[in-house]
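Lab notebook, bench 4. The sequencing result for the construct came back, and we need a structural model before the next group meeting so we can plan mutations. Quick request posted to the team channel:

Model the 3D structure of this chain.
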Amino acid sequence: LIQLRKRFLSGIDAIAGLRVIGNPQTFQFAFGSDQFDIYAVADAMEDLNWKIGRAREPHSIQLMINRSHHLTVTTFLSDLEKVSDRVAAGNIKARDIQSVYAN
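Done. Here's the predicted structure in C-alpha coordinate form:
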Protein backbone atom coordinates (compact mmCIF):
# COMPACT_ATOMS: atom_id res chain seq x y z
CA LEU A 1 0.00 0.00 0.00
CA ILE A 2 2.92 2.34 0.64
CA GLN A 3 4.13 1.83 -2.95
CA LEU A 4 0.62 2.62 -4.20
CA ARG A 5 0.62 5.89 -2.26
CA LYS A 6 4.02 6.73 -3.75
CA ARG A 7 2.66 6.07 -7.26
CA PHE A 8 -0.24 8.45 -6.67
CA LEU A 9 1.91 11.16 -5.11
CA SER A 10 4.69 11.04 -7.67
CA GLY A 11 2.16 10.82 -10.52
CA ILE A 12 0.28 13.88 -9.26
CA ASP A 13 3.51 15.85 -8.75
CA ALA A 14 4.56 14.98 -12.32
CA ILE A 15 1.47 16.67 -13.80
CA ALA A 16 2.12 20.26 -14.85
CA GLY A 17 0.39 22.72 -12.53
CA LEU A 18 -0.49 20.24 -9.77
CA ARG A 19 1.18 19.90 -6.39
CA VAL A 20 0.67 17.55 -3.48
CA ILE A 21 -0.02 19.50 -0.30
CA GLY A 22 2.41 18.80 2.51
CA ASN A 23 4.31 15.55 2.89
CA PRO A 24 1.55 12.96 3.36
CA GLN A 25 2.41 9.92 5.46
CA THR A 26 -1.06 8.37 5.38
CA PHE A 27 -3.43 7.11 2.70
CA GLN A 28 -5.49 10.29 2.70
CA PHE A 29 -3.93 13.30 1.03
CA ALA A 30 -4.74 16.45 -0.89
CA PHE A 31 -3.44 18.17 -3.98
CA GLY A 32 -4.09 21.51 -5.58
CA SER A 33 -2.84 24.05 -8.07
CA ASP A 34 -1.50 27.58 -7.98
CA GLN A 35 -1.91 27.82 -11.76
CA PHE A 36 -5.55 26.87 -12.44
CA ASP A 37 -8.90 26.15 -10.79
CA ILE A 38 -8.64 22.82 -8.98
CA TYR A 39 -12.43 22.71 -8.63
CA ALA A 40 -12.70 22.69 -12.44
CA VAL A 41 -10.40 19.65 -12.35
CA ALA A 42 -12.65 18.05 -9.73
CA ASP A 43 -15.75 18.68 -11.85
CA ALA A 44 -14.17 17.18 -14.96
CA MET A 45 -12.90 14.14 -13.06
CA GLU A 46 -16.40 13.59 -11.67
CA ASP A 47 -17.72 13.78 -15.23
CA LEU A 48 -15.41 10.80 -15.90
CA ASN A 49 -17.05 8.96 -12.95
CA TRP A 50 -14.25 9.44 -10.43
CA LYS A 51 -15.35 10.15 -6.84
CA ILE A 52 -13.62 13.36 -5.77
CA GLY A 53 -13.46 15.08 -2.39
CA ARG A 54 -13.07 18.88 -2.29
CA ALA A 55 -11.43 20.89 0.45
CA ARG A 56 -10.88 24.55 1.26
CA GLU A 57 -7.92 26.36 2.75
CA PRO A 58 -6.26 25.64 0.48
CA HIS A 59 -8.64 24.78 -2.35
CA SER A 60 -7.78 21.19 -3.13
CA ILE A 61 -8.90 17.72 -4.09
CA GLN A 62 -8.75 15.09 -1.36
CA LEU A 63 -8.20 11.43 -2.03
CA MET A 64 -8.32 8.45 0.29
CA ILE A 65 -6.78 5.37 -1.26
CA ASN A 66 -6.89 1.68 -0.39
CA ARG A 67 -5.70 -1.57 -1.95
CA SER A 68 -8.47 -1.58 -4.55
CA HIS A 69 -6.98 1.54 -6.14
CA HIS A 70 -4.04 -0.53 -7.36
CA LEU A 71 -6.25 -1.46 -10.33
CA THR A 72 -7.07 2.15 -11.24
CA VAL A 73 -4.03 4.29 -10.41
CA THR A 74 -2.71 4.38 -13.99
CA THR A 75 -6.09 5.30 -15.47
CA PHE A 76 -6.76 7.88 -12.75
CA LEU A 77 -3.42 9.62 -13.32
CA SER A 78 -3.91 9.58 -17.09
CA ASP A 79 -7.38 11.12 -16.76
CA LEU A 80 -6.07 13.64 -14.24
CA GLU A 81 -3.32 14.78 -16.59
CA LYS A 82 -5.70 15.17 -19.55
CA VAL A 83 -8.25 17.05 -17.48
CA SER A 84 -5.61 19.31 -15.91
CA ASP A 85 -4.26 20.19 -19.36
CA ARG A 86 -7.76 21.10 -20.54
CA VAL A 87 -8.44 23.22 -17.44
CA ALA A 88 -5.08 24.98 -17.80
CA ALA A 89 -5.94 25.75 -21.44
CA GLY A 90 -9.24 27.30 -20.36
CA ASN A 91 -11.38 24.60 -21.98
CA ILE A 92 -13.09 23.55 -18.74
CA LYS A 93 -14.61 25.87 -16.15
CA ALA A 94 -15.74 24.94 -12.64
CA ARG A 95 -19.37 24.46 -11.81
CA ASP A 96 -20.63 26.05 -8.61
CA ILE A 97 -20.11 23.03 -6.35
CA GLN A 98 -18.97 23.87 -2.83
CA SER A 99 -16.18 22.07 -1.04
CA VAL A 100 -17.15 19.65 1.68
CA TYR A 101 -14.15 19.86 3.97
CA ALA A 102 -12.70 22.93 5.64
CA ASN A 103 -9.73 23.16 7.95
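The chain is about 35% helix and 15% strand.
Will bring this to the meeting.
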